[in-house]
Design a protein that fits this description.
single chain; about 280 residues; mainly alpha; about 55% helix
Length: about 280
Amino acid sequence: MTVIDTTAVLHPLVDDSASQPALHEETFPAHLAARELLLTRGEFELAVLRGLVTTVHAPGGGPRHVTRGELDRLQAREGFSVTLSNQVRLAGTAEAAELLGIAKDRFTRIARAGLLAPARFQLNRYRSVVWLYFADEVREFGAAHPDLLVGRAPEPMSRRLRGGEDLRPASWRDRMHQHLLGHAQGPWERAAVTASFLDPADVAEVVADPHDRALLNRLRHEPTSARPGAVPSPGELLAEHMMCAGVPEEIHGYRVLLALAVSVAREEVRDEVRVGS
């Protein structure tokens, strides 16, 4: 069963005002913030994904920044760099299984059932998808669900897996959807985040107004940073594929969320017009 959190669309995870730096507060782009925290760029991005580092809208627009106050807060902790690095350490299937003391096949079944959301994915040299998980979350899962580490899996779960269910892509999308919603500024950006997880044909069916669709398309999240006109790499093509909801139940969920989000955005625009008139 695919579960998509609907609350953040109507009730943002982060208040927009909280994502704005205080007046005249110094802010740092990602590469400088990572340097201040003694992290690699990849570690920094994962720390933001886990909510360990709070970012704000950049004063002049563009990629998000980190305030001086946030850096001071993190640097005040003893051993802050080592602690952050450990909190964002990734584990592949083999290491995750070892952390839980179970066989690789058993861990794969747990992940396919959607019980652990991947943090990242990549292509190996055989062009196969490799899923990576936060090691901390793997350990937390083992402590919370020791019954799933031994004996037979619950029959409903086993039945779905025998039917070919694999919720790893959907679990990753749900994590990314929540993350991007938390960084969106305003109702139309939140609607555009949800639209980013749907095929354009689905968006067109849900959002009939061409002007609304054009706005969503302009604001939508792009998973790759390829140069315009450049031939996409296999990794970039995979990222585009992974961003799009893949099973009917998941697609239906995002369609419902998009309809709700657009309705909220339109209502807010109407309220602003009424207040301004």
